């Protein structure tokens, strides 16, 4: 009985993780791909660079209020627009960005 419960629990956990990753990719393709790439510099920094330098809170802040966060970081200007995402979209894109953190830093 315990083994059956464990198998069901792990199946749900992995399926949820896959759906979460898919949602993050969808948000990326909808809002981010024009300026960011996953591992290469485009108009904006790559997700790999962002993930290696920023926390989840900093990433979320930059998405929601880039002007204020840019000032906090000491940047003289900001080119990123603010996005009004649903909480689930914000969580998904933040996790998606952080999934590009170099393995040595995790």
Please tell me about this protein's structure.
By secondary structure, the chain is mostly helical. The chain has a single domain (2-105), classed as Cytochrome Bc1 Complex, Chain D, domain 2, CATH 1.10.760. Helix content is 63%, strand content 0%. The protein contains five helices and no strands. It has helices at 2-32, 47-53, 56-64, 66-73, 87-98. Mean pLDDT is 83; it is low at 5-17.
Give the helix/strand layout.
Elements: H1 2-32, H2 47-53, H3 56-64, H4 66-73, H5 87-98
Helix pairs in contact: 1-5, 3-4, 3-5
In the predicted model, the low-confidence regions spanning at least 5 consecutive residues are 5-17
> What's the end-to-end separation, in Å?
35 Å
Helix/sheet category: mainly alpha
Please give the count of helices.
5
Any idea how many domains? 1
Helix content: 55-70%
The proportion of residues in beta strands is under 5%
The CATH architecture: Orthogonal Bundle
Write down how many β-strands occur, each being a DSSP E stretch of 2 or more residues: 0
Q: Rounded to an integer, what's the Rg over CA atoms?
A: 16 Å
The string of secondary-structure elements, in order, is: HHHHH
Overall residue-averaged pLDDT value: 83
């Amino acid at each position: 009985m315990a083994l059956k419960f464990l198998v069901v629990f792990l199946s749900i956990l992995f399926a949820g993780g896959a759906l979460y990753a898919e949602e993050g990719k969808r948000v990326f393709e909808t809002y981010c791909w024009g300026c960011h790439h996953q591992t290469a510099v485009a108009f904006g920094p790559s997700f790999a660079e962002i993930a290696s330098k920023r926390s989840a809170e900093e990433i979320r802040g930059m998405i929601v209020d880039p002007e204020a966060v840019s000032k906090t970081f000491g940047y003289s200007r900001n080119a990123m627009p603010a996005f009004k995402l649903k909480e689930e979209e914000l969580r998904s894109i933040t996790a998606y960005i952080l999934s590009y953190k170099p393995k040595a830093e995790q």
